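[Discussion] Sanity-checking designs against the backbone

I'm trying to build intuition for which residues belong where. Below is a structure token string of 484 positions. I'd appreciate it if someone posts a full sequence so I can compare it with mine line by line.
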């Protein structure tokens, strides 16, 4: 068969992901903190971008300009958006700036005028002590031989956040090159440190060390821990009482004492710093209506540097390569600003649509949350479901009912007796309320919860109750039962 070259015309459609589109999609799905990091990185890399240090003055000047077109409901007010057409700042007069700024500010008279407004020295501590720091401090106060000190430091370095030791004696011997007797002695020394129960190899040893610190090593609680740990975990108190030939009340007293011990002694020294959630958008009730406003606090307001903008205007005075570089960075900066602008508008439109669909929730609370899917909002704002999904991920809204993730408002429906439907989150809330009101000595079974929900005209299967209960992190009736 002969081979030849031919031309063939073919018509086809394909999706082309341009770099600009990829950037817009990436910014759309970022959380607020991630967006701030991206903007900060772009400010450092792109010289054409700069942060508007005083956008308030620009907004005041913009408000004084005549013949402004009214803003529709689906658009974000200009003061809530990042604008690409911001006017440039005047060049800084460095001579005046340096004259008004004293390099020896610590010795100037003005430095003491606001002394009362300054934070105390106690408030300037930024480093929080960890479990390792606490144990190493105790090691520094101890009189320990050098070989044993090396092993103690190795043991401390192998503790997890809860204070448990995950290295065996053999592994410590191999790591330190010391005798097993020295390692055992060093382990015993660490287990005498504060907090009680640290450097344990399992839960049983951790609780026994705490009882020993309380001088209860020969108590009934210690006996139960040593010999009946599996029965204790299964709450088989009558079996323990029968085996020890003692009254059930004594076993319950010992079990209560054990339950008051700390199974994770190291967590008190390894608590992570609390990171508060900053809402991306607010919903305020004004009269009988809900007003949606964006939170632009903490998000840098971007603009194009006036120096490089003037350089593009006067191209003849700029080198060709420099001109190409400036144009490339200009395109990147403008696309970033437009992408952030589009992200804000999309979040605004999605939130307004959610408020429209979930009006009963904003008025009365979680019990009135209605079933809602992404398609409902997507059709309402004329966008694709994937766009709505990206917008509602890791975005938070502050409402009169509290702080919620935008994803929270999308729920499947559960049928009621009158033929209506109720959101799954509302059902979870009711299950939580039922369990909170139960008798801890006789907790409700999942089947009983089904019956109680049916009395509230909610038809739900037992396996669904079990699934929702597990999603809420609530144990079964056996695990919730309390005999003391």
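Best answer:
Here's mine. Compare freely.
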């Amino acid at each position: 068969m002969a081979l030849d070259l031919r031309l063939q015309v073919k018509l086809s459609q394909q999706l082309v992901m341009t770099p600009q589109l990829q950037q817009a999609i990436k910014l759309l799905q970022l959380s607020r903190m991630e967006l701030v990091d991206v903007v900060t990185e772009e400010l450092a890399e792109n010289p054409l971008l700069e942060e508007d240090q005083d956008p308030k003055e620009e907004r005041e000047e913009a408000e004084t300009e005549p013949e402004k077109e009214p803003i529709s409901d689906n658009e974000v007010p200009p003061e809530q958006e990042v604008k690409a057409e911001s006017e440039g700042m005047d060049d800084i007069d460095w001579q005046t700036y340096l004259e008004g700024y004293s390099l020896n500010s610590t010795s100037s008279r003005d430095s003491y005028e606001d002394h009362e407004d300054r934070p105390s020295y106690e408030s300037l501590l930024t480093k929080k002590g960890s479990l390792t720091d606490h144990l190493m401090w105790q090691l520094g106060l101890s009189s320990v031989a050098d070989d044993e000190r090396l092993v103690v430091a190795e043991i401390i370095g192998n503790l997890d956040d809860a204070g448990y030791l995950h290295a065996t004696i053999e592994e410590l011997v191999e790591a330190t090159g010391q005798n097993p007797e020295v390692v055992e002695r060093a382990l015993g020394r660490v287990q005498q440190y504060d907090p009680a129960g640290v450097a344990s190899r399992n839960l049983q040893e951790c609780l026994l060390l705490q009882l020993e610190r309380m001088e209860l090593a020969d108590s009934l609680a210690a006996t139960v821990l040593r010999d009946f740990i599996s029965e204790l975990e299964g709450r088989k108190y009558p079996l323990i009482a029968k085996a020890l030939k003692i009254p059930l009340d004594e076993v319950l007293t010992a079990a209560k004492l054990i339950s008051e011990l700390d199974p994770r002694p190291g967590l008190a020294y390894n608590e992570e710093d609390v990171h508060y959630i900053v809402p991306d958008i607010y919903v305020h009730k004004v009269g009988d209506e809900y007003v949606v406003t964006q939170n632009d606090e903490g998000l840098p307001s971007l603009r194009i540097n006036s120096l490089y903008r003037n350089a593009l205007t006067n191209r003849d005075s700029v080198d060709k390569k420099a001109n190409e570089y400036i144009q490339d960075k200009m395109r990147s900066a403008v696309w970033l600003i437009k992408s952030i602008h589009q992200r804000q508008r999309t979040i605004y439109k999605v939130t307004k649509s959610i408020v429209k669909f979930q009006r009963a929730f904003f008025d009365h609370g979680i019990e009135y949350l209605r079933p809602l899917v992404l398609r409902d909002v997507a059709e309402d704002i004329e966008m694709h479901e994937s766009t709505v999904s990206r917008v509602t991920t890791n975005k938070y809204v502050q409402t009169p009912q509290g702080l919620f993730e935008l994803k929270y408002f999308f729920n499947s429906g559960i049928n009621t007796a009158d033929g209506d439907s109720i959101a799954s989150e509302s059902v979870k809330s009711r299950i939580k309320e039922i369990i909170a009101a139960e008798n801890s000595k006789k907790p409700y079974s999942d089947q009983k919860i089904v019956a109680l929900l049916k009395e509230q005209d909610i038809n739900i299967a037992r396996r669904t109750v079990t699934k929702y209960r597990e999603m809420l992190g609530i144990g079964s009736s056996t695990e919730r039962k309390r005999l003391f």
